[in-house]
Design a protein that fits this description.
Layout: H1 3-13, E1 19-20, E2 29-30, E3 33-34, H2 44-47, H3 55-65, H4 75-88, H5 90-100, H6 110-134, H7 136-139, H8 143-153
Antiparallel strand pairs: 1-2, 2-3
Helix pairs in contact: 4-5, 4-6, 5-6, 6-8
Length: about 160
């Protein structure tokens, strides 16, 4: 999978090139970029003027901050780490991947990759479920969407 295809999937999962604020978050999100986590993104200067940031700024952000930081051989695994890292953080994505197979960066065998993808998806659903169970008032409203997102990521 190329970065361009991966980015198109991410933008679709994030609701498109739109600005929104979730009920439990203190800041806005544009195209999946959360202002509290990335306050220095240059696209905010457009948003602050009620303008639409150029798609190139979004693309550059995801390429630099996520895609190019993932060093794995298999592009399907790279996409899953990319997609989950955007949602839950790169550290969490790598932690779950490593707990499933400490050699995940080197996987190339098709059967091993399929097993990894299945196990990683189960691992992230477990992560989301635990998060919602620990703080149902804050995260319970997101659980169904997170699970749907995890399943869409592998389709």
């Amino acid at each position: 999978m190329t970065f361009e295809i991966a980015l198109d999937k991410i933008i679709s999962l994030e609701g498109g090139y739109t600005l929104h604020q979730n009920k439990t978050e203190s800041e806005v999100t544009y195209a999946g970029i959360y202002r509290k986590s990335f306050p220095n993104w240059t696209g905010w200067s457009y948003v602050d003027k009620s303008l639409t940031p150029p798609k190139e700024l979004v693309s550059e952000f995801y390429l630099t901050n996520f895609w190019d930081t993932i060093e794995v051989k298999n592009t399907s695994i790279k996409y899953l780490l990319f997609e989950f890292g955007i949602n839950a953080g790169a550290k969490k994505a790598n932690m779950i991947a490593n707990s499933i197979n400490s050699n995940y960066k080197e996987l190339e065998d098709e059967n091993e990759v399929k097993i990894f993808i299945f196990s990683f998806t189960i691992g992230r659903i477990k992560y989301y479920t635990n998060l919602a169970n620990k703080n149902p008032k804050k995260y319970g409203i997101y659980l169904r969407g997170w699970i749907n997102r995890a399943l869409k990521a592998i389709s």
